């Protein structure tokens, strides 16, 4: 039995808080290396065009220019996370507006951009295809000549040439037959747009090449996976690549791809100098890796009592010009199985099809795939309830999963706390007062609901504990803190286990030569993975100090620091290393119920989201402040997706290529957010935790859409839901 000092007051403030507030946090763009050059990229103005010729003579002769690269003088192969279909620079054809055609490295960014303007490219425009469903028709132009032949491709030569992937999940009886047997069937098609992740730091990279050794500074949230991708691309050993830690200025799913890193390496190799390449925000919006836009048709069957009998979901996603930004082995989106997953449904089929188009390549955004299928399913449930005269909350309650139930796709969870979560949601709804409606205008109010459940995923990590000669503890980690508070979480766990005040604990991210492997951030897995690693490390360290370094069973902080200093001297600087594989974990899920209250002016279509109420099954909370911010931030993320954010791609071109046009939620926009947590229950590991990073954003668009339907009787099937769209829908309905 291990004992320690009585509970001490814990400081739960963020490890990185002061550095960021003081402007001392170092991001990629803050780093300057000796003899560093600056890169710029020439991008295609056409969605689909043959590159006839490129004249770089004038650009190459500009004073200060060190190199001008085109696809013709790059010998490197294609890169990608799974599918390797992305060229460093377009060689024969440009496949979307924003595709890389040429690049420059010069003594300053200004000189590099001036050189880019001097490059003369002759294009031969080709027929493009922009819509995912149209791309899969027999006569559609091919984006790639032989997409099935790319390394990592999951399609066959017999598939349509514009197919990136197709995944079909089903369980129970044949869905078509089950729908035929159903008393009621409701079918509708919904669309969601491409949206940017909304991080404030655009993609950037610094590359330095010294012989066979490559060093990278980049805000990538999975450095060990990035190292492997780059090594595969260059056909070298991973030990030849070192990725240095930098602060990450926001992620939300968008900082896992290689993006401009291969091009930066190519420029550094060509010049034999370090090169920094930073995308402008306009470039990031037009040529980053936004969320897949979608067209989703849902058919829901019900019996005479309103119980769900069958669900068919046909989702067609726009994958853009390249598939290489998707990390899933099946080149699919991880959230596709979420369709209808909160309910008992006897027969289900969920099909996801992703198509190549001549538009910006798509990647991951918070809960990839989940929003695209959950907004349609929850909307059809609401539509069915209203047409059948059933209360929308009651129809969900009578169909929701209960503890011991199997999910529609056959997953069995160790616990489903739906009843407790619903009880908490109802309590909160009763406590949030209704505000008076404005006197001017034709204002009406509505309430909408959405039920959701999200499984918890794991990963692999390793940490190192390094006691110092002064008795402090340095914690070495392989993963970044992309804003989720992972460093703070680790410090809090170790501080509590050791009863060591936070001022004696420092958490640092090491470059990739220090550890073997880490899954990285993403998929809401980090807390689940690293909390157990930190817990085990703390327990092992305490046992070691007590058995080998004379730390008494009941000890003071001073005695603990003395033992840590003894450990430092005896081990001569070596660490206590603890690795943890959380891939094989219990099947744990979190239930969530989201309620939205809106008011709508029927005369103008103006929508005001007044309140969003969320109840969440969360198991144990390690840091209450960070936990609350994750849930609140997710709600606001979902709110932006519901009523504001749309890249607007017209004829293949992103038209909102600036934050003045691409509207992110501001303080003036956001509604009142009410968060309720249901603690306890069965989580993962000794810390008994569940994931929350992508739990609160997914159901918000559906809850808001359902509240609008409750207010004005109009079903909005296209995100984002704007005043203009609602205005015209109301007039089509006859409410002018």
From TrEMBL:
Under InterPro entries, the record lists: Ald_Oxase/Xan_DH_a/b, Ald_Oxase/Xan_DH_a/b_sf, Ald_Oxase/xanthine_DH-like, AldOxase/xan_DH_MoCoBD1, AldOxase/xan_DH_MoCoBD2, AldOxase/xan_DH_Mopterin-bd_sf
Q: Domain Aldehyde oxidase/xanthine dehydrogenase a/b hammerhead spans what residues?
A: 22-127
Query: Which SMART domains does the annotation name?
Result: Ald_Xan_dh_C (SM01008)
Pfam assignment, any one = Ald_Xan_dh_C
Q: Which Gene3D superfamilies match?
A: Aldehyde oxidase/xanthine dehydrogenase, a/b hammerhead, Aldehyde oxidase/xanthine dehydrogenase, molybdopterin binding domain
Annotated protein name in UniProt: Xanthine dehydrogenase family protein molybdopterin-binding subunit
Give the species this sequence originates from: Alicyclobacillus dauci
